[in-house]
Amino acid sequence: MTCTILALCGSLRASSSNRALLETAMSLQPAGLKIELYDGQAALPHFNPDLETAGVLPNPVLPSEVIDLRQRVRQADGLLIACPEYVHCLPGSFKNLLDWLVGCPDFPGKPVALFQATERHEYVPAMLRDVLTTMSAEILDVACFMLPATTNQIDQTWIEKQPALCDEMGRKLEAFAHRIAPKAP
Q1: Mean per-residue pLDDT for 154-162?
Q2: Cα separation of 9 and 16, whole Å?
Q3: Residue 4's closest CA among 165, 133, 180?
Q4: Domain tally for the chain?
Q5: Where is the NADPH-dependent FMN reductase-like domain (predicted)?
Q6: 185 domain-assigned
Q7: Of the residues 5, 35, 111, 116, which has the fewest C-beta atoms closer than 10 A?
């Protein structure tokens, strides 16, 4: 049986090192694991608690972009997140995505692995863990990975030319797959 991971990139940049890290993970996905990259972050409306009360007049339906995000999270067996740091904080667009997931009934208990594109980000790793823990995610430390890059000017080709890093990423993805695989009764 194949497990599905929804990859969430905290950056909107097409040439983001975090996106490159997630795309490399997709190229290294072990047998039994399918990683899908979520690309709808830029289209999400600004979080508004009034819209969160979908089904209650005068807001009978959540925005379609939010419905899509929540369906993708519901269908995923786990989440793989790579997020940059902007001015010592989470990027606003990514925080907006997380805000929309707070009211998602399928998010609590969702297994999460955190991949970090550079060790230079001093604040976001702890901040992201705090936010996700508050949201009741299950952060799987055994599957978390930090690329020991000292620059954020990296791409998938650069990462794939680092065999030791790719081996380590592969082991982390296998550990993630092992932890989220359905257990036999």
Answers
A1: 90
A2: 9
A3: 180
A4: 1
A5: 4-148
A6: no
A7: 111
